[in-house]
Amino acid sequence: MKLTLNKLRFLISLGWIFLIGIFSVVGTDQVGSVLSATSPWTQTEWSGGQTDNLATGTVLTYKQIENLVTTSGNLTLALKSPWMNEDWGYRKKLVIDNTTANLGIASEQHLDFPVLVTLNTDNFDYSKANEDGSDIRFTDSDALTLLDYQIETWDISGDSFIWVKIPQIDLDSDTDNFYLYYGNDSAIDAQNPSGVWSNSFEGVWLLNDPNDTTLVLDSAGNPTSENGTALAGITNASKIKSGIGGALQFGSITTDYITLGMPANLDFTPNAQEFTIDAWVKFPVNASGTFFSKGSNTAANIQYEMYIGTNRLYSRVGGVARDSTKIIGDGEWHHIVLRNYNSSGLKIFQYVDGLQGGTPIASGAGVITDRDVIIGGRRSSTNANITSSLSAGVEMAMVRASSVARTPAWIAATFKSESNSFLEFESEEMKYETNGSVLSNILDAEVLQDWGVLNYTNTGSSSLEVKVRSGNEPDLSDSEQSWSECSTISSGSTLG
């Protein structure tokens, strides 16, 4: 937006006249400037600077300025502060609801917590971001400190799923926030998946690789032996969408599973080590099978497993099984958790959709070290065979393994985050202040002068209002109107 000002004269006897220009952005971040005329107004010229003093002769300063940047002869709307980088044109504040009321259990503080950000056409304008999402950035609440993130799915016509690690979420807070920045055509991708999953995650398998049907990557960035190998039953036809990103559908055949090998950091000792395994699953009614395990076909030798029976979640640790009492075989997506926690001895805890199910039971001691970790089944009498395959139609979106016992509040917050009930999107902000104003003193002691004509042109993408007030007091306390009551002056208007 550019404003060119021509000659303006006022008739007033030893009085004060103030002119205000009010600037605001209209629909784009391409903000122009306000440019003074080459011939100044009577005793005023729109230039840089700021003062409360009234000068004689040509006034080269403003009395008051807000949300504008000045250089000699120019005004531009100021860059918002703080702002991560002026190369990014837009941002949104995302507010976290970690209250007890939202979680359904007592809240607690979380450190290095992975939050799932779900973008869609209702809360995000894809046309302002790069087609591949390469300009997406996240910052902490200071609007400056960059955060680690991983784009799981990017879909400009639908839902996009992005994992972001939040350094700290306060206990029972609904004001903690972070920022999403976008709108930089020249930005390159800056994802850091292993940084997102740095808080004691031993493996994170999102089951959504769009380009590979045989390799299931570990996003936690652990040794390559923990990348899963999908057997022949897993094909492109197995890949589906879920409410938290990509997923796999299993088909009740013995080659329809994923082996993770025998990595040392997944060799959890049942009665001596705390750990947590969680997954997003969708089971048809009367489904059966094991969806995560390390063990053999002998129950006493099952180191750990999670499976479904009579439509309920079961977990087994060290050969000891426990029913969660929670129904998961209902054709709906559920977040399920196995937590091996030292509570007067190692005990099996289970959670469905953020809440504990069933009574904890002591873990067993059974261990078998020469069997693979399997997604979608369990090893049998040898490490070459598979048993307890998932029945047809079972869907799984992700599996995570942690070397700590996640707390109930962490589990509840995870469920809320991944079921799109943890974040509130605030309105889009542009990098420039959305409005600003400049106030100029004009003193004309030439009593016999006539009122002049105000001529200006307004080009670009910002809007402008020009208003004039007069009075005999420097603060215009004797003026009959406030600025809000003054009408906007059109270009070419005769003032008087």
UniProtKB/TrEMBL annotation:
<protein>
    <submittedName>
        <fullName>DUF2341 domain-containing protein</fullName>
    </submittedName>
</protein>
<dbReference type="Pfam" id="PF10102">
    <property type="entry name" value="DUF2341"/>
</dbReference>
<feature type="compositionally biased region" description="Polar residues">
    <location>
        <begin position="479"/>
        <end position="496"/>
    </location>
</feature>
<dbReference type="InterPro" id="IPR018765">
    <property type="entry name" value="DUF2341"/>
</dbReference>
<feature type="region of interest" description="Disordered">
    <location>
        <begin position="469"/>
        <end position="496"/>
    </location>
</feature>
<dbReference type="InterPro" id="IPR013320">
    <property type="entry name" value="ConA-like_dom_sf"/>
</dbReference>
<feature type="domain" description="DUF2341">
    <location>
        <begin position="132"/>
        <end position="197"/>
    </location>
</feature>
